[in-house]
Design brief:
This protein has helices at about 10-25, 30-50, 55-70, 75-90, 100-115, 115-140, 140-170. It is an all-alpha fold.
C-alpha cells in the first residue's frame, strides 16, 4: 500500500509533529501540558482521517486529560482517565496493536496527574515508545516521525533538567 506523503491525513500529522516537539521542549510543566493539548487535537483529526478509532479515542482522552491536568492533580481524576482508556479499549480494540495508544494514554494520565518534572517526562517517554509502535502499525508518517523526535527531544530536555538540578544543588 503506497502512502501519500501530502494527503490531508498526513499534513495534519505534520501539524501534530510541530506541537509535539514544542511540548517536549518545555521545561515548564504548564506549558508542556498546553502544547500537548494542541498536539492531541491534531492527533484526533489525523487518526480520524487515517481510520484508526482506538488512536482517535486515546487522543481524545489525552486532549481532555491535558486540559484537566492544568487545573488539578487529584488521584481520582487520574483514575477516571485511566478507567476511560481501559473502557475504550474493551469497546474498540479488535487486535493487540489497538491497545498500544490506550496503554500510552494510561501512562500519560498517571504521569500528568501524579508526577512532575523529570519523573513525569520519563513516564511520558514510555508512552512515546508505545505511540511509535502504534504509528508504524497505522501507517502514520508524521506520527512516527513525531514520536521518534519527541523521544530524542524529551531525553534532551530531561538531560537539561538534570544539569539544572545539579547546578542548583551545588
Amino acid at each position: 500500500m503506497a502512502i501519500d506523503w501530502f494527503s490531508p491525513a498526513q499534513c495534519v500529522g505534520y501539524v501534530a509533529f510541530v506541537f509535539g516537539v514544542g511540548s517536549f521542549m518545555q521545561t515548564d510543566d504548564r506549558r508542556f501540558k498546553l502544547f500537548m493539548a494542541a498536539e492531541c487535537l491534531a492527533y484526533v483529526i489525523h487518526f480520524s482521517l487515517l481510520g484508526n478509532p482506538t488512536a482517535v479515542a486515546s487522543s481524545s482522552v489525552s486532549l481532555l486529560r491535558s486540559i484537566v491536568a492544568l487545573r488539578t492533580r487529584q488521584p481520582w481524576v487520574a483514575a477516571v482517565f485511566i478507567a476511560t482508556s481501559i473502557a475504550l479499549g474493551l469497546t474498540l480494540a479488535r487486535q493487540p496493536a489497538d491497545w498500544l495508544p490506550l496503554v500510552a494514554s494510561c501512562l500519560g494520565s498517571y504521569s500528568l496527574f501524579r508526577l512532575q518534572g523529570i519523573p513525569m517526562r520519563l513516564m511520558m517517554l514510555c508512552g512515546t515508545l508505545l505511540w511509535v509502535a502504534n504509528n508504524i502499525v497505522s501507517g502514520s508518517i508524521g506520527g512516527t516521525a513525531l514520536e521518534l523526535v519527541i523521544a530524542v527531544v524529551n531525553l534532551t530536555t530531561i538531560a537539561r533538567m538534570v544539569r539544572r538540578e545539579r547546578a542548583a544543588a551545588v
